[in-house]
Design a protein that fits this description.
about 290 residues; alpha+beta; 8 helices
């Protein structure tokens, strides 16, 4: 044995150390391979399992098993994602975020701010992985181009003024179109919202002037209606006064005419006689008392 150790150049203790290192390395490799057999997929994810590069299935959320070194599980996000095209919105200060530039039916340039919430179809993650390898690539190459196309093509169906006055209708139309397009591309639309319309400065000023003119016209119309109402009130009051006078005149005639007038005069006389007395006949209301 001494001769063998002498030939190998190692002492017994050195050999024992080398053997221990080998056992320890094998143990570590074994433990590593054991843990490589298991993994977890989160609630907002789906896993795509591949074996030597070929897709063999989808892994649902929870614990999964795979063959180490042979199989691999790639996680794809299936929770809500947001595509932001609004430079003035809550996330508008992010680098690279800008509104979409389009044109209205009457050829007015318009900057449209939109935000889209969607998620990939969990049942289609294998197809998405096969073509794009990640949801980020899928979003850049599929979702964003669809949003840009639909938002711009739909804006061309409305005049600039209609984009403002029919904003809800425009949003509903884009929403319906996006929902249909997303389904064909293995994604599901959750919510689309128009956050802002911006027009050229000249057009904005023209719109403001038009709104002001309409408001002034409405105010003038209301004022005219008020004048007409007040005039009608005056006419009705005059009619009522004339009718009252007619009724009083008729009553006077029916109650003795001149005698009735003389009686009313006496009722209002304060009893003071003139300083210069005239013939009795010159005082009409005393003539026949």
């Amino acid at each position: 044995m001494y001769e063998e150790n002498k030939k190998s150049g190692l002492t017994d203790s050195e050999k024992q150390l080398m053997k221990a290192i080998k056992y320890m390395s094998a143990f570590i490799i074994g433990i590593s391979l054991f843990f490589m057999m298991f993994g977890t997929v989160g609630a907002g994810e789906r896993g795509v399992k591949t074996r030597l590069g070929a897709i063999v299935g989808t892994v649902e959320p929870g614990l999964y098993f795979k063959l180490p070194l042979i199989e691999k599980v790639t996680k794809l996000e299936v929770k809500t994602r947001t595509v932001n095209y609004d430079k003035n919105g809550h996330e508008g200060d992010e680098e690279g975020v800008s509104s979409l530039s389009g044109a209205s039916k009457d050829l007015q340039d318009v900057s449209i701010g939109v935000m889209v919430n969607y998620h990939v179809d969990p049942s289609k993650v294998e197809e998405i992985y096969s073509q794009y390898r990640s949801v980020d690539n899928f979003e850049v190459n599929v979702i964003e181009p669809i949003i840009r196309e639909v938002v711009k093509s739909t804006s061309a169906q409305y005049t600039a003024e209609e984009l403002v006055t029919k904003r809800a209708e425009y949003g509903d139309k884009v929403n319906a179109t996006l929902a249909d397009r997303f389904i064909t591309k293995n994604a599901l639309l959750e919510r689309f919202s128009v956050t802002n319309f911006e027009f050229s400065k000249a057009f904005t000023q023209a719109i403001e002037a038009k709104v002001t003119a309409v408001q002034n016209a409405e105010a003038a119309k209301n004022k005219l209606e008020q004048i007409k109402f007040e005039a009608q009130q005056t006419i009705e009051t005059a009619k009522a006064t004339a009718e009252s006078i007619r009724i009083q005149a008729q009553a006077i005639t029916q109650q003795g005419g001149a005698e009735y007038v003389r009686l009313k005069t006496v009722e209002k006389w304060n009893g003071t006689l003139p300083a210069t007395m005239l013939p009795e006949s010159s005082i009409p209301f005393l003539g026949k008392l």
